[in-house]
Amino acid sequence: MVAEYHQQVASEKNVGSVTAHRRASRRLVISVCLAVLVLVGFVVVAVRIASESSTTLASSRQSQLILYAPGKQHAPDAAALQRLGGGDSILVGGATGKPAVVNFFASWCTACQKELGAVASVARAGRVRFIGVDTDETSYKEALRLLHRAGATYPVAKGNASLAEEYGTGALPTTAFLNGRGQIVALYLGALTRKNLEYFVAALLAGKPL
Question: Which of 175, 129, 176, 179 is nearest to 155 (CA)?
C-alpha cells in the first residue's frame, strides 16, 4: 500500500510538472508572437518615415513664394545640361541679359502634372525664356509623354538633386525666376496656376518685386 501511495504521488507530480511546462511553453510562444508583431509594426513605421524623409525630392505639399531682396539674390553657376529627348545641350543659368523662368519637375510628381499645362501655356506666349529641368526622374519616356500632352515646346533638360539644391529647392515642383544677371529673385514652391504665373512673368519683365 505504501509503495502504491508513493507511486501515485510521483505520478501526480509528473503530471503537474508536464502541465506547468506546457503552460510555460504557451506563455513563451505568446510572448514571442507579440514581440514579432511589435517588431513588424516598428519596421513598417520606420520604413514609412524613411520614405517620407528620404533625400529623393518629394512633392511640395504647400505652395509658397520666397522672395530674395536685392543684395541677397544669388546667381547659380551656369550649367550645360543634356537635353531631354536628345539634341544639343541646354544652358541653365548664367547672365544672359534677359529674365528666365526655370521650372523643376518630374513625371512622378502629381503636383507637377497639374501645373505643367499652365507652364506650357504661359511659355508659348514667348514673353520670357522658359526652361524645364526634369529632376530626379524615374522614367524619361513618361516625362516626354507628359510634356507632349501638356503642349510644352520650351527646352527641357535632365537635372538632378544637386542642381535643384543649388537653386535652393528640395521639393517638386519648384519654379525659379531669374533676372538678366542670372540671379534668383524669387522661388515658387508648389504648383503654379496660369493666372499666378502670368502675373509673376509680367512683374519679372518689369523689374518689379514678385
Answer: 129
